[in-house]
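Show me a record, fold above all:
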Amino acid sequence: MDGMIKVLGWDDLMMMKKMLRDVSKQERVIVIREYDEEKDKLNVQEMERKCEVGPTNGETSLYTDDLGDPISRIRHSPTFLMLVAEMEMDNDQKEIVGLIRGCIKTVTCGKKLTRNGKNGNGNDIITSNIQGNKFVPVYTKLAYILGLRVSSSHRRMGIGLKLVTRLENWFAENGAEYSYMATEKDNEASVKLFTERCGYSKFRVPSVLVQPVFAHRIRISKRIQIFRLPTSEAEKLYRARFSTTEFFPRDIDSILNNTLNQGTYLAVPHGTFPSSSWPGTDKFLCNPPESWSILSIWNTKEVFMLEVRGASRTRRALAKTTRIMDRALPWLGIPSVPQLFRPFGSHFLYGLGGEGPASVNLMKGLCGFAHNLAKESGCGVVATEVSSCDPLRLGIPNWKRLSLEEDLWCIKRLGEDYSDGSIGDWTKSPPGISIFVDPRQV
């Protein structure tokens, strides 16, 4: 015989069937289009229910519930868009197999010297440095990508790349100069897609710090005095002391006036001010105390809920035991594990800052105060995100098991046809001590 005749086995037939199915998928038409809330809402929710988010350890996974509003995480941004990838099926039906969200905002990307201490519209009055020079923020139009999802049965078909490319085109059309995204450092698929195929570069590695909300209230030291600032006063202070911080949103007033904002709180050593009432931002800025700390609280519970799935019965039982003991013996202050195995809400702390030798302890007191507010609201955790080198990080209570030591931010310059301005190419700039995390994109 000139050749051999191979008899195909069951495994060979299954392999050929899979290859034909994969080829058939690739030949199907995929349409990238804008999300239509009226006809896409249920299909998008169903697809997202099947996708994991957040850190996983092989046993447990974190799932999110958008509370019936797929664009809730970008809805409060100045400009936003959601795209879906739709595939034609064999029965002439169409299926949503991917989605992506994006928004555009104006943020600080650097600072420059000025003579009068004001920017172009006179809002940001910056304090002088040691030499008496004054700095004002340099702003840029920045796009943010979040919520990229591709159905598990339709991955490795280039759908994610098509969604990113289409969204970037929209960013550029609307004047965005840079685009960035955040992902887990260990999420190899996401990092590879953006850095190797989409042209992004690794930029910043902030830390996500998460503290569970216990069944008991946290005691706040009587040596600390905490003020709730009126919104206008909070805006004035943020613009005066933080507008040159990287990623500071130019529309900070929109954030502070949003219904999801739960207030801005400032802590000083007890007795710093003779009166128990806030003296006013103008007086504070003219003669600031030696030490102070500040933060604001965002109610993400009204935007989405989270749930830990896949935990063993043993872990669930141990967590329940800690809660029972915490309620029975509240004076012991036993750190209890909240009910994370069913949908739970959270509060996000943003705008963290401060100065002085006691600022870390003051921040710890503010975080305890925020914990107690979250407890009253029925939240499961309190979270924040700060630069990994921010000295105030030492005053932020957190559980390592729930936190993310390094959250990777990647950035891309969208065009070369605009001026480098006074800071040059932002993607090549060194990191600062702090960053300002916009709560609208959590």
The radius of gyration is 25 Å. The first helix runs from residue 10 to 27. The longest strand covers residues 94-114.
